[in-house]
Amino acid sequence: MAPRDGVVQATEAPESPPVDIRMYKLFPPPSYAGAIQRSGIVARVLREGCEPVAVLQGPAGSGKTTTMQQILQACSARGWRTAWLSLDEADNDPQRLEAHMEAVAARLERRPAGGRPGGAGTDAGRDLSDWLLDRLSRLGEPVAVFLDEFQALRSETVLHFFRALLQHLPARVRLFISSRTLPELGLATLLVNRQAFVLRADDLRFSCDEAAQFFAADTTLGLRREEVEAIHQRTEGWPAGLQLYRLALANPAVRDALDGLDSDGPRELAEYLTDNVVSLQPPRTQAFLLRTSLLRRMCAPLCEAVTGFGDARLLLAQLDAAGLFVRPLDAGGHWFKYHGLFASFLAAGLRRTSPEQAQEVHAQAARWYVAHDLHEEAVFHALQARDWALAGQTLSAWASRLIASAELVTVERWYEALPFDSVALQPALAIKAAYALTFLRRRDKLRPLVGVLAQHRGRGDVGTTTHPDFALAMAAVFEDDLHGAVRAVDKQEIWHRADGGFPAFELGAAANLLAFGKVAAGDFESARKVLAMARTHNRRGGASFSGGYTAAVGGANLMAEGRLQEALAHLRAGLSEPQARLDKSTAATALPACMLWALYEANELAEMETLAAASRQAIAESAIPDFIAIAHIAISRMHEARGRPEQAAEAVEQLERIGHDSHWPRLVRLADWERVRRAIATGELQRAQAIAERIGPAGQAVPPGWVLLAEDIEGDGFGRLRLAIHRDDLLGASRHFAAESSRQPGRLQRQVKLLVLDALLQRRKGLLNAAHRSLRKALGLARPGGLVRSFLDEGPAVVEMLQHEHRQLLAAPEDPVAGDHDRGARRYVEALLAAAGAGLPWPAERPAPRAAALSPLSEREQEMLLFLCNGVSNKEIATRLFVSENTVKFHLKNIYAKLSVGNRAQAINAARALRLGA
């Protein structure tokens, strides 16, 4: 897209709002005449076998940026691919940082910024570090990435991303970081492992010879060697101090004072020299410097607006040529910025001597930025001018796009900079801030806003963002009051309004919430209709952000109906949409949370583990209790199934901590019921009983007949029934089963789990025929969707019953009418037994079929089938056989066809039955 004042827009999808990319942040500082080449440092950081990560750490003015620019030039001269990113406060918003890191990748791949290469589907379920590492590893040439001003980053999410990046840098990739402070990147470990090294301020200082070379470049000074040595001693080789001296030495008083500055520290010396440098300029230039020093970046039209001078372009060029601490931010020389140290001294002087003039400059700058639709700078200057009304109005207009594109941390940051009373006077801003704080789970910050919005409940209009009910409903979900939230959003506006922009975002969010309530009520068809309306509103509002939540609720709806394969396809499609990989908002995390549940039920544990590693922490910090619960319980059971009891317990403990920290007692109860289930599975019945006795009563009441989403995986109903069965409280278990079965009989996955538990109950009663009737009912309901873990989670007794069922199916005579159905039932049971790792008990009267009855497998296919039977993943097979994953998939497709199976589990089962995998 065409640049707009140094900004391009990275569009995630045709309907989604763009994330602005500040192109000036990607522009390395130009080299300037007279700069001393730090050849020793450059040689040191680029030596053969050097550590891949270099950190240049020192205070402002220590030459970090200039040195990095020279390293970049040296890398470019060697033919390396290079990219530069200047970081700032705004990059603490994960979404904003992601857009700029993708722009860095675009620079390295030599393609335009603002788009993502390849199909978005390749990125499903991956976080930004995985994505970027993959892009870097595909580059066939050496790569150098430069990150300037790293001290601006404080967000733990963002720092976590960089830690992951540093720990897994591909070969041939170098990373250079400049920072005023040592970044919190796990440097101690990196240093010990020789993955990083640090150049500190002492390493960056000019030597006396370098200082002499620096001053010799200006022939007008004529400094003697002893004068150079005196200056070097006063500045301690500090590059900014040397530059200030060079500029100030035109004043004879400065030269005469060389012997009288011994007691001054570096900052005092810099301030003294800055005053002298400015005093040497013509009065008009001095006025220009002072007024423009308040600008974080500047262009000629902006400078003219705040100074009244008509020749700002010429003045900027003159300042740049004179080396007066100003540098261009783009190749065209449109935008500039002062060195931070120089600007801070000038701005402090103006605020001290003429605070009214400083406030006037900020007010003029704010109005100029508003007129040019540059919202962030407009808000900053309006706040500095104490024009709360303008700051709030601008933030409100900007927040419409920020929220829809999930830049929630940015909304939070600027909202906090405003006085609360001024926000309360602007309903639209209060509503938008409430959404951001809800999605970010900022309970303490949200509560005062809820109090303000509640005073206007039922009033206003969605179209003008003055109707607070939908925002209050989202806040109610945060308080785990789904029923109250659904009552608030069940309004005709969802069906009949066709607004665009932020009102459409609100309507889409409300429709998502209403659909979630329909899922809880078991009204799955109504949920589908409401979700279709939500997708329409999402498109109108350009909100791919809330589209993630729409996809998650749709997946939950399918899961509740037992349509597992459809749910997996639906959720994979949702994950292939360009959701923000660093974003921690509700919408961004509900989707992987639901996918973890589906993958666990399908027993796709390898894929699940990859997704869990990428998304677990983000899910833990999201705002919808049910999605947090299903993800953590699924992760715990995955670890349990893979033989990691400690990690399984840790996932349950994390769920409990979240429940306590967020005042969600329901999550604490769910964690305890999962502990009860685990204790039963290990035969610790007394412990299970003790845990159950400590579980308190249910908190917030829900309407009769409702089943909250987390109850589909665990909760009071399953927990009390399971415990009664294993304690041989058969009468109590029968009562629990009857009560639970009557709740939403159309909730198919839940009914399958209840029928499996009933099969165990009847078995305990000694009623084996009744037990197998319940098991067959469960199998019949579960087979179309391919449910797996609903059976296996109940332990060895269910596996034994499945083996018996398999023998019965084999022993039954062929029915020409029901033949296909019977074969399908047998294959499904075989797949379940294969997933359980159980053998197939072939009866003596029916020998196992031989492989000769099949189309013969090629030698390579037999080799792959052997790997398959040993649980080797596609990626590992490709590595061991030195082929691509696509080649593996091609051969597996042929194997499935020859074995007449449809998936990996069935292929393993068939191979064992046919004695091919031995």
Automatic annotation (TrEMBL):
SUPFAM superfamilies in the record: C-terminal effector domain of the bipartite response regulators, P-loop containing nucleoside triphosphate hydrolases
One MF term in the entry's GO annotations: DNA binding
Gene Ontology process terms (BP): regulation of DNA-templated transcription
Coiled coil residues, start to end: none
Pfam families, A to Z: AAA_16, GerE, TPR_MalT, WHD_MalT
Source organism per UniProt: Aquincola agrisoli
Protein name: LuxR C-terminal-related transcriptional regulator
CDD domains, per the entry: LuxR_C_like
